[in-house]
Design brief:
289 residues, alpha+beta, 8 helices, 43% helix, elongated
Length: 289
């Protein structure tokens, strides 16, 4: 924004430009993106060359607006797809519950009243926790830091399983629970950890298809969670790319679920492992150190 003129020999601080004003705050080898009010962004660096033993400073100014815009579009795109994935997970399970209620409307006030009330409570709970999850995302473009609280691990897993009851019944998939009797208390972000359980259980259900078994185990010392299925398992190529963002083995998959699982577990400091089982199917282990 500086018009042409006879500038050689003019001290840099005498040049009238918002870029110059910020350049003057740079130290040697500093690198900074300068964002102007006209929407332009510049990557600026202060370096020096040596001549006869003296340092001579110079600045590099690169127009950086388009690169930043592309990076922002990529970040927002990933964020939106991740959010949509989690919305679809919850909406799918809630819709399944509501359809079950509608299909059995004649018996709501009689034999199945307690079961319907329980299912609706699960739907309300899932919607509430999804709302919390989405609210956190609305303020940042990365996964929010865990808001840790102590909660009953077994009860949390049971609540998630209840939201899948209609899908499991429809596809004739049996649940085998092996939950430790000590009811371990997990110090973690319950909303985020339940998103982990939802994604892992959903993946296992989709891998099984129909007529299979989903096994969920918890341990107490150390606290651990294992989710296993007897589906077809994954190819070595798929296992290598499993946690790559947007990679999916499903025709209509978004490749977001396991990426989110990984980020949540890493942020909590929990170790995990995913592998094919020798007897068939896959196994996802989470260990709380």
């Amino acid at each position: 924004g500086i018009p042409p003129g006879p500038y050689p020999g003019t001290p840099i601080q005498e040049l009238k430009s918002p870029v110059i004003a910020q350049l003057l705050t740079l130290n040697f080898q500093d690198k900074r993106i300068i964002d102007l009010t006209d929407g332009q962004k510049y990557l600026c660096r202060k370096l020096f060359f040596m001549d006869h033993g003296f340092k001579h400073p110079f600045y590099i100014i690169e127009e950086f607006s388009e690169e930043i815009r592309q990076a922002e579009r990529a970040a927002y795109g990933k964020l939106i797809r991740m959010m949509a994935h989690e919305v679809n997970n919850t909406v799918g399970s809630v819709n399944s519950i509501l359809m079950t209620v509608l299909d059995n409307r004649e018996t709501i006030v009689t034999a199945e009243q307690d079961e319907v009330i329980r299912m609706l409570e699960v739907a309300v709970q899932r919607n509430y926790r999804l709302n919390r999850f989405m609210t956190n995302f609305s303020d940042v473009v990365k996964l929010p830091k865990p808001e840790k609280e102590s909660f009953d691990l077994n009860a949390s897993i049971q609540s998630v399983i209840n939201s899948f009851t209609p899908v499991l019944s429809e596809n004739n998939i049996k649940i085998r629970l092996d939950l430790t009797t000590s009811s371990p208390q997990l110090l973690a972000d319950q909303s985020q950890m339940e998103q982990v359980f939802i994604n892992l259980i959903k993946n296992s259900i989709e891998a099984i298809g129909t007529n299979g078994t989903l096994t969920i185990k918890t341990g107490a010392d150390p606290i651990s969670i294992s989710i296993c299925d007897n589906g077809p398992g994954l190819t070595p190529e798929a296992l290598e790319k499993l946690f790559t963002p947007f990679f999916s083995t499903k025709a209509n998959g978004q490749g977001i679920g396991l990426t989110l699982v990984r980020e949540i577990l890493i942020n909590h400091g929990f170790s995990f492992q995913f592998a094919n089982q020798e007897e068939g199917g896959t196994r996802f282990d989470i260990r709380i150190s």
